Amino acid sequence: MRGLGGKETQILPKITFPVEATHIMMFARALDDTNPAYHDAEAARRSEAGGIVAPPTFTTAVAQFDPDYPLRPKHGESWFGSAKEASGITGKPATSGGLHGEQHFEYLRYPKPGDVLTAEVKPGKEWSKESRRAGKLIFRERITEFRDQAGDLVLVARSVGITTERPVEQTGGANGTAQG
Which domain covers residue 122, as residue numbers? Predict the structure, then answer.
């Protein structure tokens, strides 16, 4: 299946993602979210949720269970951001690469400890717009369905990535930002 830019659009392998109370607590702490629904079993039992539940963006942690995730550290290998070697773009790139456009989460219920979620990523809509400075902008939606161990749909995450036809010239505006 080919998309707008002639790129092959693929369905990625399914990823299994166990949901554990400790992971939920650490994720909430990383966000400085002190809601007891994320760490206090007794308080969570008395809440509307009825028990510990995961914070709204918790399922983004599925990347840690994807062996091919490009930003996941790989022992003994350089990876983007590892500082083992330069990992930036060298020379003038043909495009700007990719940009994160937007993210949406549609919950049927909150993930909770004990769930074993399976994430399946599928291509969604694709469209383009013309830009004066970057040429054609190609927007690609990716839809990730998270199902529990019974096969029931728990949530749907939609993200939109943007690629440009050409890089935007940096013309030395204030603080090195582009002008125009």
Answer: 1-18+90-169
